[in-house]
Specification:
Helix content: 25-40%
Number of strands: 17
Structural class: alpha/beta
Radius of gyration: 27 Å
Strand order of the largest sheet: 9-10-11-12-14-13
Number of helices: 15
Largest sheet: 6 strands, mixed
Distance between the termini: 54 Å
Number of domains: 5
Length: 403
């Protein structure tokens, strides 16, 4: 029966998450996607055996009861209402090891009872399962303002995204949107390549990004640590604001002004936006606090708003937020996957390149065959992907077959 259902559906091979998103938006009938999640660790375990799939789930399951439905023998594996409108199954709650143990016992039976686990919130019942096994289609909701009066629930409306969804600890912020202009048509949003004066640098051109300090910038985004003469900044992402703590070994008055300059440069360089708090050294001299605030004004491009530096050395800045900052991007796996691919593209060896990284980074690369193919075309060589759970997310590296 399942073959009959899927036989006449369109089949779409080798699509990545972005392409799937576009196809879903324009599709007017069901279609089947092959191979999209073939590299998921859960899929790999299930291909080996049902027992290994259960073992993988148990390794991530939380110690809490699950809702399970248990049917009767002789029902051909189906859960349904009988002629008397009675259910042929019972519902219970049990922990996953006990449920799986019962499934294993039923597997040996010639007329097994169906045991059914319904859909659940994966993040609520498992640790790390979603992160290692999901297709990132982005946030599917947006805050629309203003809402046209004539629009009713379920209607179709073309909108312009003014700010993408923002990843934050806890619940991510939804994207923001406004009604599109009457003559607007659906299209991709602008990219960096659309900026005035933008230049596309080929892989065999001079590494202008590297020469401009791109690797150091990425390290700062990953670690939140930014050094400057006499001190250092520690940048922390919180749900309320981005906090910048200034510490150093020079005189507090000098550190306050020098640190304010370094913080302003870091805000611009790392594209920090929204609410930003700068914790300067506490200084009693009002003139020093004023000089620190003026140092920010002299470096940080407008528009922004700020408070004065209070007596405890705290200065708050608010900048318009139109996209995620670099530290926010590198708090998530896809940015590390792209950075590793750029490293592979710039590798000066020859032959096959082996990319070794944390399994979540490897899974993110494997989920985007278009990325892999683009790098392989550039290099004229294949990429081999190898996961190493002992590596940090940011510790991926590339090895050419012939260095």
């Amino acid at each position: 029966m399942a073959d009959d259902i899927f036989r006449d559906m369109a089949r779409v091979p080798d699509v990545g998450a972005d392409d799937l998103d576009r196809r879903l938006a324009s599709a007017d009938r069901p279609f089947v996607v092959r191979g999209l999640v073939a590299e998921w660790p859960l899929v790999q375990a299930a291909r080996r055996s049902a027992a290994q799939a259960r073992r993988y789930l148990l390794d991530h399951a939380r110690d809490m009861p699950f809702t399970v439905s248990v049917g009767q023998p002789g029902g051909d594996g189906r859960l349904f209402y009988d002629e008397a409108m009675r259910m042929n199954f019972a519902m219970a709650r049990a922990k996953l090891p006990d449920i799986f143990a019962e499934i294993e016992r039923e597997e040996a039976s010639t007329d097994p009872r169906p045991i059914y686990l319904a859909s659940i919130d994966v993040r609520g019942f498992f640790d790390g399962l979603h992160e290692a096994n999901h297709v990132d289609l982005g946030t599917r909701e947006a805050l629309l303002h203003p809402l046209p009066r004539a629009v009713t629930e379920g209607a179709t409306l073309l909108v312009e995204i003014t700010r993408p969804a923002t990843p934050e600890p806890g619940k991510p912020k939804r994207a923001r949107a406004r009604p599109a202009l009457p003559d607007a048509v659906p299209c991709e949003g602008p990219s960096l390549a659309d900026l005035p004066g933008a230049r596309i640098v080929g892989p065999f051109d001079r590494d202008l990004l590297g020469e401009a300090g791109w690797p150091l910038l990425i390290e700062e985004a990953m670690t939140g640590q930014v050094g400057f003469p006499g001190g250092a900044l520690s940048i922390s992402l919180t749900p309320a604001m981005t906090l910048i703590d200034i510490d150093g070994d020079i005189a507090p008055a000098d550190l306050a002004v020098t640190g304010a300059r370094a913080a302003a440069r870091a805000i611009a360089r790392l594209d920090l936006a929204g609410s930003i708090g700068i914790d300067l050294p506490t200084v009693g001299d009002k003139a020093v606090r004023l000089a620190a605030a003026e140092a920010v004004d002299a470096i940080l491009p407008q528009p922004f708003e700020r408070t004065a530096v209070n007596g405890f050395g705290f200065l708050q800045i608010v900048r318009r937020r139109s996209r995620a900052s670099l530290p926010e991007l590198f708090a998530h796996v896809p940015a590390h996957a792209r950075a590793l691919l750029r490293q592979a593209e710039r590798d000066r060896g020859s032959g096959e390149r082996t990319l070794t990284a944390h399994p979540s980074v490897i899974a993110a690369i494997a989920a985007r065959p278009d990325w892999v193919q683009a790098v392989e075309r550039t290099l004229g060589a294949t990429l081999a992907l190898r996961g190493d759970a002992g590596l940090a997310i940011s510790a991926g590296h590339v090895q050419a077959r012939f260095p």
